[in-house]
Amino acid sequence: MEKKSCGRIDEAISHFRFDGELIQKKPYGSGHINDTFLLQFRMKDGSISKQILQRVNHEIFKDPVALMENIEGVTTFLRKKIIENGGDPERETLNLRQADNGKTYYTDEDGNYWRVFGFIDGATSYDKVEKPEHFYQSAVAFGHFQRLLADYPAKTLHETIIGFHDTAARLETFKKAVEADVCGRAQGVEKEIRFVLEREDVAHTFGDLQKAGKLPLRVTHNDTKLNNIMLDDETGKAICVIDLDTVMPGLAMNDFGDSIRFGASTAAEDETDLSKVSCDLELFELYARGFIEGCAGKLSPLEISLLPMGAKVMTYECGMRFLTDYLQGDTYFKVHREGHNLDRCRTQFKLLSDMEQKWDTMQNIIKKYM
Ligand code: ADP
Ligand code: GN1
Ligand code: MG
Q1: How confident is the model at residue 1 (pLDDT cuts 50, 70, 90)?
Q2: Does ligand 2 have an atom closer than 6 angstroms to the CB of 31?
């Protein structure tokens, strides 16, 4: 995918209003979806200005214009709140730059959508928890993000990926992928397929409660990986929530759970030595404390009690999505080696098994915060 977009990168750059002379452009970050580039410009006074250029993955986000409307709306809303709270809007929210067509995106000759964000300097997005305090800070920030957006007009948000966390619908898609077996890979992953099918109840838990009207839809981030947050290099505080492509009405427990799935795992998402993969309960508790604190009283007792279930559901769903993509020929997530999606699927299932073992303790930890 990167190769496809590289051909048009110069065209895209020429359609944004940058100051200074371009001295570097290079692929950046470890996201699985968009093509991200760091651009560096030398200014007249010798200083360096950095910008993030992204090609939106329009095979995944089918309506990039609607997606950009969401991001414009959310960042404008956050900017206002940050200013009201005496914060720094240049660092505490993403800032879209204008293209020469007056819009916040440029469409190239091949139909790719490009956008530019101001680079958040002096901050890092981590692929792994290096200090527990960082994880706690990210929890407060994701909780706070949800609270800040509590009065965002949710009806104006477009659903950028239909049924993004509809786990039951994803289970159906998975079953179809097994059935179709377009790459002839199903035979080699019978164990993993069985793992999914033995846990169908997990896929239905939240959908059933929603149908019964027991769970509020909130404006959530929906992709709360640790590397979707920037932590200040000096203070260690989480300063900015990034990757806003999936901000949509959703469930608080899923935002919690996706962070646990990624950050409380003792190994990388694509670790091949499964003996290294487990759920670190100290990190789980730390994140729970920070998230509940960040949401500042907005979560209902039922939502809080379902936080451990959020961790299970998101781990199950993500593992199933990796396996589906493996079966379908690796067309969704970027892969960097043979069997990459299968490796990712296996870490998720190992993690989920470990959560099952630790289930009572996970629930007891959350009870303390109710
Ligand atoms: P993807 O959807 O592919 O995950 P992201 O929007 O998360 O794309 O961007 C990928 C990576 O690029 C992030 O994890 C982060 O490291 C970096 N990044 C994105 N936006 C910024 C920004 N405004 N400032 C600094 N780094 C950024
Ligand atoms: C993708 O975009 P990124 O890399 O932050 C994916 C998430 C998955 C995650 C797994 C839009 O996140 O849903 O949980 O990979 N984003 C999308 O690492 O599908
Ligand atoms: Mg990302």
Answers
A1: very low
A2: yes
